[in-house]
Amino acid sequence: MKRIILISLLTLSIVFNTNSRNTNHPIASEEEQIEAAIQGYIVNFFLNKYDEMEVHLHEELSKRGVNSNGKLNENVSKAALKEMMQNKQVLPLSAQKNVVTEIKIDKRVATAILDTGYPRTRWKEYVHLAKLDGKWVIMDVFWCFEKMEEE
Questions:
Q1: Residue range 66-90, pLDDT digits in tens
Q2: CB within 8 Å of 11: residues ≥ 6 apart
Q3: Cβ-proximal residues to 57 (8 Å cutoff; 6+ apart), any chain
Q4: CA-to-CA distance for 1 and 6, rounded, in angstroms?
Q5: Can you give the chain as a three-state secondary structure string?
Q6: Parallel, antiparallel or unpaired: strands 135-145 and 57-66
Q7: Whole-number pLDDT of residue 44
């Protein structure tokens, strides 16, 4: 009797798992996966949640840009980014405006533009990603400030 119950439970488990894999939930497109990686990076950057952000970044991340004075800033590594996030002000999700545009994909390499910033300071981030081990990760971020009109 125990054996029949065990076999029945095993059969139900196999049927349930097979049916759950055949649901009508589409697998995210490459563009959706890329946007999710970029949003995961920037939203958590503004919330100062390094661990949640870090999963979207490659170990050899390079982040730099052109300052408002027109000079190139030094490269910011993952370690420097983590340190920076410990001391900066949190920008709540309700105040964030992060828009990913112009996603271009060539096999396992992609680039996209992220429009982001603080309420009175906006910038564009040019994000380069690679698909490694089946997952899109951010390799490089290059940013530049945008001229702001009065809000």
A1: 988 889 999 998 999 999 999 899 9
A2: none
A3: 41, 78, 137, 138
A4: 9
A5: CHHHHHHHHHHHHHHHHHHHHCCCCCCCCHHHHHHHHHHHHHHHHHCCCHHHHHCCEEEEEEEEEECCCCCECCCECHHHHHHHHCCCCCCCHHHCCCEEEEEEEECCEEEEEEEEEECCEEEEEEEEEEEECCEEEEEEEEEEECCCCCC
A6: parallel
A7: 95
pLDDT digits (tens, 9 = 90+) for 107-151: 999 999 999 988 888 899 999 999 999 999 999 999 998 865 544
> Rounded to the nearest 5 degrees, what angle is found at the Cα of 30, between the Cα atoms of 25 and 35?
95
Distance in angstroms (rounded) separating the CA atoms of residues 52 and 35: 15
Residue type, position 13, single letter: S
Report field, pTM of the whole predicted structure over 0.90: no
